[in-house]
Amino acid sequence: MESIPNARSLLCFGPKQPYPIALYLGFRLLKVLDAVSIRFYEFPLQVVKLVHLKYLAITYDGEIPSSISCLWNLEVLIVSQHNNIKRSNLPVYLPIEIWKLHKLKHLQCMGLDLPDPTSADDDSLVVEKLLTLSGVSAHSVTVGVLARIPNLKKIGIKIESAHDSVETFSFLGGDQFSNLLIRSPENVTSVPIQFPLFLKKISLSGCGFSWSYMRALNCLLHLETLKLRWYAFCGPVWETSDWCFSDLKYLLLEDLDLKRWDSTRDHFPSLERLVIRHCYNLQEIPPDFAGSKSLEEIEVHDCRKEVTVGIEKQRKRYRNIKCGLRVRFSGDDEKAK
């Protein structure tokens, strides 16, 4: 690789490597470095010399050095973990110098948190261009931190205790956020949460909510995308009753223990795409969904065949050619109908 010293991008493809691999980083004009597939046991200090970098993505389990602030052109920083094992009960913070990356737009750091810049007594520590923050825990969602990210639109939070869920969402008010992702590995967010009213996209995973708590989401009149993964809600029956998701366009149900979904298309008048994955207990979708005028596609992955058969019967009954159906089982090629 030394023969192309003026390279602008270095992309490392393939599965993640379990062992360290020597990577040449002598490209002084490099702007994009995507090395997520390579595991670093020590932070590659050559990286901080690449001052033209705009995009940096690596896999590293340790602490980020303060010299990261040398990458003053950086717009995207992604730090993935090789091991998702929690290292201690104490938060592990990014260096305070991370606040000097004033061009940063996207920050994704699994297992790391943003330090509170107010402790540094420096008013210049503001990242006005940051739009997306994900992978952090509740320790990053404080008044001091959010005040220094005035244009933040999307936030992904890892909840590790019920106390975190209460403490965190007391700060998420107003209309600042349009996209919220919550990941809870141990079903600890069963404590009711007051969601920001102006959210347009929500992704929940591992929260363990009761289906009755779906009313809290139904109050979000601007909600357009709802993704429920890995026991985000628990229980055999989801009954929408008189609830109406008036603006919802995309609904994902994945790895849920849901058996019966009692609803009607009138409760989802704007739904355009329905995706159901690995819901092995689900018996059928609501009996009139395929007759919806707004619904364009239903995707079914690894569910009971009765679900697919029921959808096909609905399409024939309503003669809905517009509503496509994609079915896939593990080991099979995807079938579009």
UniProtKB/TrEMBL annotation:
Q: InterPro entries of this UniProt entry?
A: LRR_dom_sf (IPR032675)
Top-rank lineage group of the source organism: Eukaryota
In its UniProt entry, what is this protein called?
FBD domain-containing protein
